[in-house]
Amino acid sequence: MEKRFGDDIAALVKEHALGDAAYEGILRYIANIEKEYRADYVSGLKKFLRQSAKAKEHKTEEVLDFYSQAFGVAEAEAIKAKTESSVMRWSSLGSILVCCFMLFMMLVIPALLKIEENTRPKP
Predict the structure, then answer these.
(1) Where are the domains of the chain?
(2) CA dist., res. 51 & res. 30, Å (int)
(3) Which of 18, 46, 64, 113 would bridge with 22, disulfide CB 3.0–4.6 Å?
């Protein structure tokens, strides 16, 4: 992780004078994020810290904590939405298969009855 994001994080720490503890903290936080969202966290953190530095309303450490918490909530929601989407896809596929099976049975059963009726010996 440090190979991939280390330079970006080091630049952020230096730009906002956060210190080595923040560097290590950000790396630990990134380690807990799903792999597909790690780059989004770093790029979003850059933008968020730069905007908050322009506003100069809060301490950078508070902004970093706020962003990390907000990102964690957004990540959890994204994972939940992905899971729900997968469940919906599988349930839709199941419904389609059941409908196809029922349609097949509706067409086959009358044909089988007609075949049985036509092959029955006549008295």
Answers:
(1) 2-119
(2) 21
(3) 18
